[in-house]
Amino acid sequence: MAELPERYKPWAEREGLIEVGRIPALHAQKAVVRSLFTMDRAVELFDRVVAHLGERAWIDPEGGETRRRCYVRDREDPDWLLPVPLLEHAWIAGIGQMVIGTFVNSGAVTAEDAPEGWTPGDEPFWPQDPTLDILPQSPNMQGGSLKIAEGTGSVEIEYDDRGVRASASWSACGDVFWYGRAFNTRPWVIDPLARPPTPMPFSLACRPELDVNGHTVDQMVAWVLELEPERLLPHRVLLPLPMPGGVAGAWGRARWALREAAFEGRLPDDAAGWVVIDAFEGGVMAVGPDFASAVARWRDEVARVRPRPPKPDKRDEPEPRVPDREPELVKDDEGNLVRFSTGTVRLTSPVLAHLAWPIPLPQHVPAAAVPLPPLPSMPEAYRRAGFSRVLRMFGEHGAVTHGMLREEADGFTIVGEGLLDVVDPTTVGEEIDAATARHRAEYADMPVGFPNPFDEDYPCETLRFRCWDDARRCRVPLSHVGSSFGTWTARNIDGDGWAWVVVRVRHR
Q1: Which residues contact residue 300 at a Cβ distance below 8 angstroms, ignoring those fewer than 6 apart?
Q2: How many Cβ atoms from other residues are within 10 Å of residue 321's Cβ?
Q3: How far apart, in whole angstroms, are the C-alpha atoms of residue 330 and residue 55?
Q4: CA-based nearest residue to 395, from 203, 251, 230
Q5: pLDDT at position 11, please?
Q6: Residue 339: which pLDDT band, with cuts at 50, 70 and 90?
Q7: Residue 416 is inside which H or E element, if any?
Q8: Is 216 exposed, middle or buried (0-12, 13-18, 19+ CB in 10 A)?
């Protein structure tokens, strides 16, 4: 077994971890990918799943001839769609023909079964995919991608111009440490005590029957049909007619509007049950104790207000062309690489369907519906420390979380619900100041030419901090984990991430 450096031992010694599945994680991934190793198989899977679903399947026309997204209708209310496509297939030329750079993490966790002397950057020692010299003769053997999703879990396989698997990316890969340490020897591992808890791996890669050599398309079709995305997707989208952006655009606009309504206090504190909002510009919102009553109230408001589609972009001039720049390396005084640039990279998106906005009759208005849990009460310690309200925060996939908000002279502070038991509300302001000072100092030590956002004339800064050590399961000082600079908008309040951090928004 490869020796584990001392700094990683707390991660290996954690208790309370749970194994999911029966075969090693990497073998499970390869079992899925090898079952769909060529594009003709991907197309066959897509077509056959859609055929089996029958009327429950809905292909969004917004993709035109380039992209097909298969959404599934809600079982009880088939007018409403699960807003994450079960399958997504796209034709894309040129995949795998551009390599920007290769990163080697010299401090990475070494797999426990790595050969003696193996180091990151060496040739892989784990099972590799086969090289195909004889390919199927099919018009579907082209470049593109296939994505299979069950709510938040997914796998996306990209195919090169020959129609052969070029790469695969997975969401929800379990505990990051154990995946790096034992991807070839241990099943998926999750840590339910982490903050946030480790999400469950994509269930398709957790099946006990998986064979690392792959399976038939028949078997993959059966397993995809057994996925339960409704179990992981609480929200729904209503799209009466095809329109620009399709289902994804409708949910994105509705999510932005819900975040703004919650932040601006337009979502009543006593609201609970379901909230329904139009997916044009979010101007019509209704709440009810159950789904049916919320939808009925919303329809009454739509008939009264008559919301209209988003206004078109009125910019008269096109965006200025970004100048061409050569690749660049920036090193410190000791010759260590601290920053690099690939130079100007120009990407051209595929042409999708040109859809017009529908005539804004009440029956044509799109909407999103989200379950709305009751607003929790604020802990008394936070109230005494000046926190004035509990803020609802909407996540990427319909989950609603909460944060304690304190308004301040130049902005506000939010403590996410996942940290309320470990953050002292009376001292969090001083902790934020200290962590921000350390972060500023890191920029001050950078070589000349390294961009420093603190020195730029941005109207607002949003800083996020963590204070929990998942390895040792203990409270630690606030440390900076992310930031954004620019114009403030409540649309950026991400309920998934902000529930587990302290956020400081400061208007300059």
Answers
A1: 286
A2: 8
A3: 56
A4: 251
A5: 96
A6: low
A7: strand 411-416
A8: exposed
Token reading at 342: 């690939």
- Model pLDDT, residue 316: 47
- The three-state secondary structure class of 7 is helix
User: Between 426 and 447, whose confidence is greater?
Assistant: 426
Handedness of CA 143, 63, 89, 348 (dihedral sign): positive
Structure tokens at 362: 């009440």
- Considering just the CA atoms, what is the radius of gyration of the chain in Å? 25
Tokens of 205: 């890669």
Q: Which residues contact 82 (CB under 8 A, 6 or more apart)?
A: 71, 72, 73, 74, 229, 230, 233, 236
Mean pLDDT of 75-91: 97
Contacts 24+ apart (CB under 8 A), 474-483: 475/422, 477/431, 477/434, 477/435, 478/428, 478/431, 478/432, 478/434, 478/435, 478/502, 479/435, 479/438, 480/435, 480/436, 480/438, 480/439, 483/439, 483/453
- Token pair 């991807």 is at which residue? 183
pLDDT band, residue 369 (cuts 50/70/90):
very high
Q: For residue 215, give the amino acid letter.
A: H
The residue assigned the tokens 């925060």 is 393
Q: pLDDT band at 346, cuts 50/70/90?
A: low
Confidence check: pLDDT of 205 > 50: yes
Q: Is the N-terminal amide bond of 78 cis, ω within 30° of 0?
A: no
Q: What is the mean pLDDT of the chain?
A: 92
**How many residues in total does the chain contain?**
508
